[in-house]
Amino acid sequence: MTVILHITPQEQWQVAQHQGIYRADSLDTEGFIHCSTPKQVIKVANHFFPHQKGLVLLSIDSDKVTPEIRYETVEVNEQFPHIYGELNLDAVFEVIEFEPGEDGFFNLPANLQKSV
Fold it and tell me: DSSP alpha helices (H): ranges in the chain?
């Protein structure tokens, strides 16, 4: 199992649970759902979501994802996982409340630190 991570507002995750499928806005606008590896997620969080509260971090088992996952180069020598289609909820094995620290920036949750 390879763990990939996705940051989303808690409200969007609640809608997904009600609908039985997860669709990120980027799936409609860019054709895929942005994800990160555990090594990348803090850099992504602090770049795109500084000071933002009410987020959750979805831990996704890549082996259970039904749509295609492509690892694509976004930055030099770094590939990010992208999910091309709606994420099936049974691939999400953990949902972690993801809040910034007092300084407004994120730290890797303790249970993910060993996977980096």
Answer: 10-19, 25-29, 41-48, 110-113
On whether residue 61 sits in a domain, the answer given is yes
∠ CA 54-59-60, nearest 5°, is: 130
Candidates 50, 55, 49, 42; CA nearest to 13 is 55
What is the number of structural domains in the chain?
A: 1
The domain in which residue 43 lies consists of: 3-103
Q: Tell me if 60 sits within 8 A of 87, measured CB to CB.
A: yes
Domain containing 42 — which CATH number? 3.20.170.20
Q: Print pLDDT tens along the chain (116 aa).
A: 899 999 999 999 999 999 999 999 899 899 999 999 988 999 999 999 999 999 999 999 999 999 999 999 887 788 999 999 999 999 999 999 999 999 999 998 887 766 65
Six-digit token string for 102: 């007092």
- Helix spans in 35-81 (H): 41-48
